[in-house]
Amino acid sequence: MCGMFLADHGVDVIKVERPQVGDEIRRSGETKDGVGLFYKVLNRGKRSVTLDLKTEIGAEALKKLVKDVDMRAANRGSDLLSLSVQIAQSSCDLSNQVQSFPLVTG
C-alpha cells in the first residue's frame, strides 16, 4: 500500500515485477482481462516494468532505474529483495543527496 499512497500524492512510482508470474495478486479476486480489481486498486498511478534480476540484463536495467531515486519500497520474497537491494545500493550515487536511502518493506 505504501506505493499506492505515494502514487496518490504525485510520487513517480515504478513497480518492478518478475517475468512470467509478475505480481501474484494480479490474478487474484474478480478479474477483467486477467487482471484482478485488487491489483488495479493497489497499483493505480504506478508505472510498471518486468525485470529478471537474476540476469545481467535485468540487473543493469535496475541499476539504471534506481540511479537517481530517493527511496525504495519492497514487498518480495527475501531472496529477490536482498538481490534487488544489493543491485540498487551498488549503483546509486548519493553524493548529491541526503546520505539516507530508506527501504520500506511490507
- Report the portion of residues in β strands: 15-25%
Count structural domains. Answer: 2
Order of helices and strands: HEEEHEHEHE
Helix coverage percent:
25-40%
* Average pLDDT over all residues: 75
- Tell me the radius of gyration: 14 Å
Count of alpha and pi helical runs: 4
- Any idea what the shape is? flat
Largest sheet: 2 strands, parallel
From the N-terminal CA to the C-terminal CA, the straight-line distance is 9 Å
Task: Strand order, main sheet: write it out.
Answer: 1-4
Low-confidence stretches: 94-101
Derived from helix and strand composition plus strand pairing, the structural class reads alpha/beta
- Total strands: 6
InterPro entries: CoA-transferase_III_domain, CoA-Trfase_fam_III, CoA-Trfase_III_dom_1_sf
Pfam families: CoA_transf_3
Protein name: Carnitine dehydratase
GO molecular function: CoA-transferase activity
List keywords for this structure.
106 residues, two-stranded parallel ribbon, alpha/beta, 2 domains, two-stranded antiparallel ribbon
Set down the secondary structure blueprint.
Elements: H1 2-8, E1 14-17, E2 31-32, E3 35-36, H2 37-42, E4 47-50, H3 56-66, E5 72-74, H4 78-91, E6 103-105
Parallel strand pairs: 1-4, 5-6
Antiparallel strand pairs: 2-3
